[in-house]
Amino acid sequence: MADRLAVGLAKSVVVGAITKVQSVIEEDAKLREKVKRDLVSITLEFEMMQSFLDDANEEMKSKVVRTWVKHIRQLAYDVEDCVENVVQLDDKPVFWRRLLPSCMVEPLQLDQAVEEIEQLKGRVEEVNNCYRRYNLINESVGSSKPAVVIHQPQPPVPGASDMLCKARDATQRRQGTFGDLTRLISKEDNKLQVISLWGSASDHGTTSIIRETFTHSEICQDFTYRAWVKLMHPFSPYGFIRSLMAQFYANSCKEENAATAGMHVLMKMEAAQAHLFNEFKQLILEKKYLIVLEGLSTMVDWDTIRTFLPDKKNGSCIILSTQEPEIASLCVGHFYDILEFKKFSDDHSVCVLFKEPPVDEARQSSPSGKKMKDAEQWMEDNLLVGRESQINELRRCLAGARFPNSQVVSVWGMAGIGKSHLIRYLYFNRMFHTKQFQKYSWVDVPHPFNLRGFSRSLLLDLFSEEDPIKQCRELLEQYQCLVVIDNLRSKEEWDLIQAALLSRRSSSVIIVITTEASIASYCTNIEANVNVRCLDDDAAFDLFRQEVLKMNPTSPLAHYRNMELDDLILKCGGIPTVIAAIAGLLAPLTVTGMDTVYSLHSRFMHHLENNPELDGLQDLLRWMHSIILNPPDFLKPCIFYLSIFPRGCYIRRRRLLRRWIAEGYSKESVDRNAEENAESFFSELVQLSIFKQLGTSASTRVGFYQVNSFIRAYIISRSTEENLVFELAAGRALNTPSRGRHLVILENWDRDRILYERMHFSRLWSLTVFGKWESFFISKTMKLLRVLDLEDAQGVTDNDLHMMVKLLRHLKFLSLRGCHEICHLPRSLGELRQLQTLDVRQTSIVTIPVSITELQKLQYIRAGLTIHVASAVPSNSWFCRRPHLVGVKVPSGIGKLTALHTLGVIDVAASGRVAIIKELRKLTQLRKLGASGINKYNGKGFITAISAHVHLESLSVHLDQDNKGCLDDISLPWENLQSLKLYGLGDKLPQPRSQFTRLRKLALEMDTLMQNDIDFLANLPELCILRLRVKQQLQGGRLHFYAEMSGEQLDTFEKVKILEIACCTSELHVTFGSKSMQNLELLTLDYTSASYQLAGLKNLFELKHVLLKGTNDEAFRAEFASHLASHPRQPVVKLEALPRSS
């Protein structure tokens, strides 16, 4: 009985336990299903928020809507955080933890996710209800207000658009020579003047303009008899004459006795009608008068009026206002001029139509008369600063554009960069110094674009009055014309211009100016495509001084230098328009000059946008608004993300791209992976001139960039509302705890721990540290941190790294590059399951832990340390001075990381010859691989292992010492490679497996480079960058970059833009052939262990820069530069090296 009871009790306990476990399992499963359902629902809400934000813009006038947008922006960020948490939930069953008492375990992540989603759903509903509630109140209040009458613009009048474009073009072409209406009326001309004022969209502004002129003291003195008549319909001749005479009497009496003028007019008007008409006839025939006709609407009325107002050649003037463009032009007569008097909007301007003598030297297209004087004056007032190399490049392009099918030169760059200024200098220079062109024309593209209006503007400058499109084409064929087309905005505009005006028979040259690189490339080939870049720092200072002296020759600022003023000039980003505007503002100041400098420096963008004296920057600011605030959706977060990097910071391209990917700004699409999309985004920002490239050519991917200082300031001024980036810097007060998504700690911050620990980190996405690291920078509240970037931070230890891995389990990007005190990666690294990027380059890490094989999402591993090998070889050896890259030992199982596309540098010898080769075979997605420790034992196996990797584009191989010939008889898989680096070779290049065509970048370090190897390199069709380090050179220390056949030199190294040479011989003779390296832009010579005798430098027609490494001798640099003084491109010679390569 007792046994049965015991069994029964045990059975009931087991059944109870099973029931409880099943209940817990079901509860866990239900919660997971609930999370999925809620996630779908809240994702829909998120998409609707995103759609609303797409429609919302900065110009919203409703404060209710602006407030709602602010709240849903923050809510959207929180939704994204929640989604990130749910996605990262561990799939492993944890139901057993529910069986334990709550006091023994921490809250489950699943339970926390469910609770957070419920809260978010409630917030979404509350925000929407709040908007509906207050929007209804707003509408109710608004409906009770008196109705406001809005004057709608009149429907467009036929021909109005053409005439407005014509007026604006002519006004820009005159460059301010037209003063005002008073000067136009007061000119000495006895003929009856007829001047039309035409409002393009309405009569708004016309009356005030005429009134100002009508009451002007100069006009009152010159015209005793003045009258202003508002025409009535139908037109009454009797009423018209009586109105004229009444005002003639009134205005003439005012000159004599203003007190009794009114009574005198009434007495005069009481006279008999016949007497009044006779007096009118006599006055019109003998006196000089000014008559304003308001509201003229028909030519019938005009013809009637003119019968009463014949031309007696006494200097009289008629001003008429009308909204009909045809009437405005017909009343003035044929061959009239039109100018934009005042612009009120893009659609509405008040324009003035008048007639000048039919032959005017100012209108002649040949370079003579007044046009030459204006050009000469412009050249005197506008010196060229920092643009010598680009003006030479333009001259070359202009010479080449004379050949058939090469008639177009494209010039592009950001707004305000000085494109038009540079071309105008070239334009006038051609007038003075060459006879290449018979006619000259400068045309500003009208917007909205109108081909007929564009052609008419071109004809006016070429002095022709016939059918515009047909005559333009004939003139461009008949004469050698230089035509500048400024402000081209679309490819469609160019298609219309090209189809209508250009022909193959034409010998004219067209210069197109645009802000977009894609349009510039579309108009012409790459050889005639000139990018106008920002001024360098020295040229910016020179331009500032020149502009100050031009405005005020005695200004102390012209020669005064201090930190604040220099920093203010550098903030201008090398943009001439901004520098000139700041100089113009500061030049007149004396005692208060530095106070203004301090104010400008502290509130730079605020002053530029709100100071009336800086109105000339509005076009630039509008362009900035379009590219910063209204770019494509995928680019906007990438642009605002740039404010993370301090001004002047060198940014490695790959560093930024990997951060974008970790932040989710660049994702995989149907046809491209995330890396390729990030590369595309980066290229677009380069084309927008947001980056300053630390290199010489946009076609060569240099590793370092800087954000333009002016653009960075603009980005920061617009990012405060988003509250995305928070910066800890010297002088930055922290009054309230920050909730920024990205935290940046600058080098000059004082590391105040108390202040730091007051901050909120629960929503932080990234942490970037410049300068000294402190252990308290890591907080356990940083649960959402995705990016931890400590590149070149000082003081980071292994203990700090252990704490990072323990607390920051959501990391996707971890960079410790340059943290030399880091020696080991912790075993717990495998807990970072979301990690995509690991960069430990230039640390003291030599071994990668086994736990890394658990990181299935890892795509990018950079490791290895550059050292100098002075102790490893005799001190007199040349190789004792060369850097040597030490790879890291990787564990067995690295082949499990199938998502890996970048790996390097790994030490193949240290990682086990057979094991690592086996693992490398599995990494079929590799696109970039770096390996050291290659020797005669593993070389063949290594090459065999990677031969089948069809995605491999970049390969870097470092041979062990005393293994220089281990690759001599091995065929390398060069077919798909775009970049190849081979270090430690002997006297023979490894043979390619087949004739490859994709290689763009090649770096070789060899004992000896034979001429047959040079001949082989000369015919690589896509080679763009070539770097050579050679211990010794045969053939008497000579290096010939050319090839011959039957005594004739051949075209070789056709696409090479960058060449670097390093050698250890006492003197190396380098010769460049007449048909070799025709596109070379940068030549780098390492003088550490060698000297060079260079021949044929003049054959390098595109050479822009020469970099001298291994010497700080300024006299030597100056002497080298003097030898290049006669070079057609006048290349710049520098001593300083570029930042280290990535």
Short description:
By secondary structure, the chain is of the alpha/beta class.
**Separation, N- and C-terminal Cα atoms:** 82 Å
Biggest sheet statistics: 17 strands, parallel
Assembly status:
single chain
Radius of gyration: 38 Å
Question: Mean pLDDT, rounded to whole units?
Answer: 79
Beta strands, count = 40
Number of helices: 36
Protein name: Disease resistance protein RPM1
Keywords: Coiled coil, Leucine-rich repeat, Nucleotide-binding, Plant defense, Repeat
Domain NB-ARC: 188-351, 403-552
Pfam families: LRR_14, NB-ARC, Rx_N, WHD_DRP
Structure overview:
This protein has 1142 residues and is α/β, with parallel strands linked by helices. Among the domains are: 1-94 and 108-138, Single alpha-helices involved in coiled-coils or other helix-helix interfaces; 174-355, no CATH class; 388-531, P-loop containing nucleotide triphosphate hydrolases (Rossmann fold, 3-Layer(aba) Sandwich), CATH 3.40.50.300; 537-625, no CATH class; 1000-1135. The chain is 40% helix and 17% strand. It is built from 36 helices and 40 strands. The strands form eight sheets. It has a 17-stranded parallel β-sheet, with helices on both faces. Strands 2-3-4-1-6-5 form a six-stranded mixed β-sheet, with helices on both faces. Strand 5 and strand 6 form a beta hairpin. Helix 1 (2-55) runs antiparallel to helix 2 (63-87). The longest helix is centred in the N-terminal third of the chain and has 54 residues, at 2-55. The chain is globular, with a radius of gyration of 38 Å. The protein starts with a helix and ends in an 8-residue tail after the last strand. Residues 95-100, 139-154, 357-365, 696-701, 870-881 and 1138-1142 have low confidence and may be disordered.
